Structures are given as structure tokens and as C-alpha cells.
Amino acid sequence: MRYVDKFTKEEIELTNKLLGQYYNPHIHKGIPLLPYFLNEWLLRTNNFEKGYTLTIDDYTNEITVRDIIASLVNEIPESLKLKINDIINPIDEKFKEVTNIVKEPLLPGLEGEDPAWWWYRLPKKLVGELKEDVESKKII
Fold first, then answer.
1. Longest C-alpha distance within the chain, in Å?
2. Which is deepest, 2, 12, 46, 122, by most CB within 10 Å?
3. Mean predicted lDDT score pLDDT of the chain
4. For residues 13, 25, 28 and 65, what is the CA-based torsion angle, rounded to 10 degrees?
5. For the chain, what percent of residues have pLDDT higher than 70?
6. Is residue 15 pLDDT above 70, yes or no?
7. How far apart, in Å, do the first and last CA atoms of the chain sit?
8. d(C-alpha 81, C-alpha 98), whole Å
9. Where does the pLDDT of residue 2 fall: very low under 50, low under 70, confident under 90, or very high at 90 and above?
10. Residue 123, φ and ψ in degrees, nearest 5
11. Four-CA torsion 118, 20, 32, 26, nearest 10 degrees
12. Using CA atoms, how far apart are residues 35 and 31, in angstroms rounded to an integer?
């Protein structure tokens, strides 16, 4: 798994504990969750670049992985934040490169919070059901 060698055993244990609410034993049994979610964000960003064919609902579900990473970063020591930022920043930059900004967030913020910047972005290459949804819902 990509990124697993970037973190100490203690960092993996801490982040597994904090990410435990996102643990699915059928998918994540024995998997270090932080590298898993970082890798998922990279893979999803690469998929968005190719042209995401599923629905807008599927797309919004896909980008919630970035929310998971963001919530983790709010709960960890600064030294670990720096490590994660070194990994996540280039992925975020790629995500920005392969997406366009939209006027309204794709999902509302949580309990009065403004939605994060990634909720204001759609893939540049619109194909399949996502394209149909974007056009029918007049998202852009």
C-alpha cells in the first residue's frame, strides 16, 4: 500500500484509533487507515482526471474521503500534520488541476460550517451520468 512507509507504528496506531469511526471490517481489516485514505484520495483524483462516469451522488460520495482526511488533521500533533500535508498537498493540487470551480457547493456544510473548497469542484472532463446530472441539475 502506498504511503504506509511514511509513518511510524505509533502514528499508524494513533490515526487508526482516530479514524476508527470510518472503519469497515469488511474492507479495512488489518489495514493502516491513514495510508489507505491518502491512497484513496490519490486514486479518486486520478479517476476524476480520466472522466468520472457515475452519478453526482456517487461523485459526492467519492470526495467525502477528503473530509475524512481533513477531520483527522484537526486532531493530530503538528509533526504528523506536516507529514500528512507533504503527501496531501500535491494530491490536492492535482485535484484542482483536473477539476473546475462551481458557484454553489455540491453538498451543504455541516451544522453552520462553510463547505470545504473541494465541495466547489467538478471534474473538467464530464462524461456519462455525471455529465447528465450536471446538465439536468444546472450545476454549472
1. 48
2. 122
3. 92
4. -90
5. 96
6. yes
7. 36
8. 25
9. confident
10. -55, 140
11. -100
12. 9
Taking the domains of the chain in order of start, what are their residue ranges?
Answer: 4-136
Beta strands in 29-125 (DSSP E): 99-101, 121-123
> Taking the model in full, what pTM does it have?
0.91
Q: Is the separation of the CB atoms in 50 and 125 below 8 Å?
A: yes
| C-alpha cell, 95 | 485535484
| Percent of the chain that is helix, strand, coil (3-state, to 5) | 65, 5, 30
Query: 86-124 pLDDT, tens per residue?
Result: 999 999 999 999 999 999 899 876 566 789 999 999 999
Cβ of 130: how many Cβ atoms within 10 Å? 23
